Amino acid sequence: MLGYISDDARGASDKLLFQMADRFRKDGLNVAGAVQENIGGDEVTACDMVLRIFGHSDPITISQNLGPGATGCRLDPDALERAVGFASAQLSDDTDLLIVNKFGKQEMEGGGFRQLIGEAMTLGVPVLTAIRPSYLEVFTSFTGDLAEEIKAEPSAINAWFDAQRMETF
Question: Organism's domain of life (predicted)?
Fold first, then answer.
């Protein structure tokens, strides 16, 4: 019911979830949630983190500029909560899949998309997300034995999703 990928390469999980969401939506599936697109930046400079919310036309920038030399977290928590609100509005019992760009620090602390993940699971909607390896312990304490690691490649995600759909019929 809850699948996750884990990849340490910068932006790799974001790109894969974006690709899979696009494919599922083109296949006519009702996908709710958000995928992250990292705009600009390189290995040294920070990118702009933008969430694309399914069913919402405007992307939401969730990063903030902290100024030159800043080393703190650039996540704008208010922007993230706005994004969660838009994504929550798209979730229903006829949703085929909820994709959440990541289970990160906000979710570890009880915020972000954490409640939406729980709501989707209560509705029987499969959830696909990404986890940093360093957050895996907190994630598994939240999910118990309900989470399943998926190899970070399209064929593995397709197989996982097909299995989820078979369980609901």
Answer: Bacteria
Residue whose structure tokens are 């939401």: 60
Residue 15: CB atoms within 10 Å:
15
- Residue 153 makes CB contacts below 8 A (sequence gap 6+) with 16
Q: Comparing C-alpha atoms, which of 46, 38, 39, 44 is closest to residue 13?
A: 38
Is the pLDDT score of 169 beyond 60? no
Q: Which residue has the tokens 């085929």?
A: 96
CB within 8 A of 105, min separation 6: which ones?
Answer: 73, 75, 135
* Higher-scoring residue by pLDDT: 80, 7: 80
Domain boundaries, the chain: 2-168
Q: Which CATH architecture has domain 2-168?
A: 3-Layer(aba) Sandwich (3.40)
The amino acid occupying position 19 is Q
Helix/strand/coil for 47: coil
Contacts (Cβ under 8 Å, ≥6 apart) of 168: 124
Residue with tokens 């986890």: 131
Cβ count near 63 (within 10 Å): 21
pLDDT confidence of 41, banded at 50, 70, 90? low
